[in-house]
Amino acid sequence: MIRTLVAAAVLLGAAGNAGAQQEIRLWHAMSGALGEALEALVQRFNGAQRDYRVVPEHKGSYEDTMIAALTAQGTGAGPHLVQVYEVGTAHMMAARSAVRPLWQVMAEGGEPIDAKAFLPAVASYFSDNAGKLLALPFSVSTPILFYNKDAFRKAKLDPEQPPKSWYEFPKVIEVLRDAGVECGYTTTWPSWVLIENMSTWHNQDFATRDNGLGGLDARLVFNTHLMVRHVSTLSSWARAGYFTYAGRRIEGEQRFLAGECALLTAASSSSAALRRSAGFDFGEAQLPHYDDVKGAPHHSMIGGAALWVMAMAGPKRAEYRGVAKFLAWLAKPEVQAEWHQQTGYVPVTRAAYELTRKQGFYAVRPGQEIAIRQLLLNNPTRESRGIRIGEFQKIRTIIEEELEAVWDGTKPPKLALDQAAERGNQLLRHFEAQHRIGLEPAVPGRTPRRPAKTPKK
Amino acid sequence: MEKRVAFRSAWLPYALLAPQIAITIIFFFWPAVQAVWFAFQLQDAFGLQTEFVGLQNFAALFADEHYLASFQTTAVFSVLVAFFGIAISLLLATMADRVVRGALVYKTLLIWPYAVAAAVAGVLWAFMFAPSIGIVTYVLKRMGVDWNWIINGDQAMLLVVMASVWKQISYNFLFFLAGLQSIPRSLVEAAAIDGAGPVRRFWTVVFPLLSPTTFFLLVVNIVYAFFDTFGVIDATTQGGPAQATQILVYKVYYDGVKAADLGGSSAQSVILMLIVIALTVIQFRFVERRVQY
């Protein structure tokens, strides 16, 4: 009690101090063009008001950023806000006492936020079962197709007619290769684009229990007939030189930028980097699909990150108020619209989308609208809201490993997908066990870290 | 003959040793004990919840065929790194020892790579050998070699071995050079007078006299390959393609640091610890017999 009073007194003193700004630490994983755009946004917020100063800090990759925040948690030097990618969402949700739900922070800070203002596919992914937002969707993207228009022209293909279905790929690539293009098609983030998104895109399950949104007991079921066929097709293309595996992350961008590959599937946010470095004219188009699958294309799935509010020890009302102010500012339509237009990330609120449309932005840059169109193509069904499973990081690695064995020609596609699902399921059961240990209370509060119980004698 | 220093004071020797012992306990024993402790626990990603699960972490590991496969990968990797690391640096040290003019320059240049961080070394090598933009790849392609370690597991192994060896050569080089310089000139000269050529002199006189150094480096290099190479691997292949370069310590690092599975990662590091202890014991019992001090 006394500690609370002292802390409150200290806080009041700090607040009363003329000119003293409350610092809000934001740890993020944006680098290059995206990092600069984020810094610019933060500077504008800092310039627009005087009470709070947001201090952004680049912490490396998404993986590194999340781990850094987790490690710093509870030391007092950790961030107030941390950018966590979609793969870490289940981890963040499961650790309820380490984070503070967004809706609560906003309500207490006098800036209530409505999940309905956000795009359904985006909001449902970052909400709890009651439909309340747990984190602010921020850098959200979805994979789209990029193609080298100059290479198309050189091959005497119509630069305004990129291939729409996977079946058109071989024909187009054949022509491109005859015109001297080395590799045809490549991708970034193979698991995300080729497996996860292709499941949603064809309205198929990646995992049971609504792709993991419905509970911890989800099982992976992505080794479907369609996926086996898809991977088999790609594997035959890999042998023929039509498809080039570039690596597990964004190495594909380099292949595309070097002019080696004329077709690239990558996150819509890659467009910022591509626009900056491409020495040629490129176009954006909808993801290819299999047109003999009923209901396809359904809608693609989001990836990317949200801003999570970390739980701080002790009463930090002023700091949380600052966090709420900053997040409310970030969610403003004009700020969102600007962020979207600069980076290629999806406008996460309907208002930002409307505003961008009214500004006539899409008339000039139609490519920027493809991502959001893909997300809005159909209302999310149970299968297509997004994937939220535990140990996603490891499961992705498993999928990449098994796919690599396919591209190498050492493993048949069906076996690889079956084994990927099986290995992933073992991890999911492990994760389920970890989080069944002590079911945490529904009301978030910080449970003190305690050593394992030693059995009483 | 053993040298002994006698202290009159009863506490002074302990006081002098105390800082070193404190450092060893805090930075070596304490984490090791903690790793053993964590190995028997199940934890969530934040370490907020823990539960004692006995041998469950170990059972899960040995039921995983991919984990078992990485033992073989580790064996291949360590043997290659230790062998080439020692052989190349021995060659370089012998050469550098013969140089008269500008010896300092050569030595400095050879010692240089040791100051480069493992991750930086990895990035450097990955960049030079990058499948599409690497300069070495470009040359290889013109020579008709299809270089693509992103898919080809053997090439990926070759790359991480090269990077790890390169990183370790300076260290080995220093020790070999010191060893070479402590060999009495008279012995080598006597052999020369008896008509032994440079090669014969090396194998019958110099190499046996270097055996303590070689043995020491063998132990150190094996430990290096087992424990210290995850930085290189993380910066280049991340264990891929299809686990071709997934060595034990990288999996420890990946599971513990990147995937936040402390229990599983600790269990693995305990196993790794046991392996290295066993290897070191074997080396001291069997290999050391052939060492002439």
Topology at a glance:
The complex is a heterodimer of chains A (457) and B (293).
Chain A: H1 2-16, E1 22-28, H2 32-48, E2 52-58, H3 62-72, E3 81-85, H4 89-94, E4 99-100, H5 102-108, H6 120-125, E5 136-141, E6 143-148, H7 149-154, H8 169-178, E7 184-187, H9 190-201, H10 208-211, H11 225-240, H12 251-257, E8 261-267, H13 270-277, E9 282-285, E10 303-310, H14 317-330, H15 333-343, H16 350-358, H17 361-364, H18 370-376, H19 392-407, H20 413-435
Parallel strand pairs in A: 1-2, 1-3, 7-8
Antiparallel strand pairs in A: 3-10, 4-10, 5-10, 6-8, 6-9
Chain B: H1 12-39, E1 41-43, E2 50-52, H2 56-62, H3 65-98, H4 103-111, H5 118-128, H6 135-142, H7 153-181, H8 185-193, H9 198-227, H10 230-235, H11 248-258, H12 262-287
Antiparallel strand pairs in B: 1-2
Describe the protein.
The complex is a heterodimer of chains A (457) and B (293). With 457 residues, chain A is an alpha/beta fold. Chain A folds into 2 domains: 2-141 and 303-364, Periplasmic binding protein-like II (D-Maltodextrin-Binding Protein, domain 2), CATH 3.40.190; 143-300 and 389-435, 3-Layer(aba) Sandwich (D-Maltodextrin-Binding Protein, domain 2). Chain A is 46% helix and 12% strand. Chain A has 20 helices and 10 strands. In chain A, α2 links the parallel β1 and β2 (52-58). The longest helix of chain A is centred in the last third of the chain and has 23 residues, at 413-435. Chain A is globular, with a radius of gyration of 23 Å. Mean pLDDT of chain A is 86; it is low at 5-18 and 438-457. Chain B is mostly helical. Chain B has a single domain, classed as MetI-like (MetI-like fold, Orthogonal Bundle), CATH 1.10.3720.10. Chain B has 12 helices and 2 strands; from the N terminus they run αββααααααααααα. A two-stranded antiparallel sheet of chain B has the order 1-2. The longest helix of chain B has 34 residues, at 65-98. Chain B is globular, with a radius of gyration of 23 Å. The interface between A and B is large, with 47 and 37 residues.
